[in-house]
């Protein structure tokens, strides 16, 4: 289990393997409001105005190296929490102006959200809540996207000031086995909706699990256009070393470099988790 030294970890980013990086970059930068931080070979790192840390990574994998998912993807949906209401509303206006199809817009007490798909069919939502915490769609009221534009002032926004991915739902073929893995690895406590807060700290992250069937739900992360890895920012080398010691004691498969600057392991779906210190 994760010990006290990891309690200050921060959820950093997710990486999605894509077939057309330029179309995806246009969507996340111009339809939504990420900014491109830097590129590295096939990777492009996307972030926001007030942080140099990437929030989303897109990795180009052409058709001769990867393929579309057979059946259900691992990634059911992820949520981007936008810190400022006016910037969330500006993104709603971008969607209206660009005539982007959405699944639905919603209001849950004071929280607002929009569920949609990106240009390669990955399901996501953008959301805002007054206190910045994750608010789901359970009990939410569906509203018209255009009605959001009457809920506050909207100014021009090219890049979100602050936004974080704070929620993800994974499709898994065995919910109980997946829960057991995360309970052991993260000391997670799942609720009746099969969701648990895996990362606490200043940037908490909630994971939900949904039962599904599909040929690519386990393994093949290097071969399919789907979720590839998730990265957590550890507070120190000592925290990474402690995590490595825990994994050794449990005879878990993992990799850690000699300087305890990065530790990686795979969950039951084959998705990589990275703990890094920068």
Structural commentary:
The radius of gyration is 18 Å and the shape is globular. The mean pLDDT is 92. 19% of the residues lie in helices and 35% in strands. Strand 11 and strand 12 form a beta hairpin. The two termini are 22 Å apart. The strands form two sheets. An eight-stranded mixed beta sheet has the order 2-3-4-1-13-16-15-14, covered by helices on one side. Strands 9-6-7-8-5-10-12-11 form an eight-stranded mixed beta sheet. The relative contact order is 0.20. It is of the alpha+beta class. It is built from five helices and 16 strands. The protein has a single domain, classed as 2,3-Dihydroxybiphenyl 1,2-Dioxygenase, domain 1, CATH 3.10.180.
List the helices and strands and how they pair.
Blueprint: E1 10-18, H1 21-31, E2 35-40, E3 43-47, E4 56-60, E5 75-82, H2 85-97, E6 102-108, E7 111-117, E8 123-128, E9 141-143, H3 145-148, E10 163-172, H4 175-186, E11 195-199, E12 205-211, E13 227-233, H5 237-249, E14 255-256, E15 262-266, E16 272-276
Parallel strand pairs: 1-4, 5-8, 10-12, 13-16
Antiparallel strand pairs: 1-13, 2-3, 3-4, 5-10, 6-7, 6-9, 7-8, 11-12, 14-15, 15-16
CATH class: Alpha Beta
Calculate the mean pLDDT score and round it.
92
How many helices? The count is 5
| Poorly predicted regions | none
Order of helices and strands: EHEEEEHEEEEHEHEEEHEEE
Radius of gyration: 18 Å
CATH superfamily: 2,3-Dihydroxybiphenyl 1,2-Dioxygenase, domain 1
Short summary of the structure?
The chain is of the alpha+beta class.
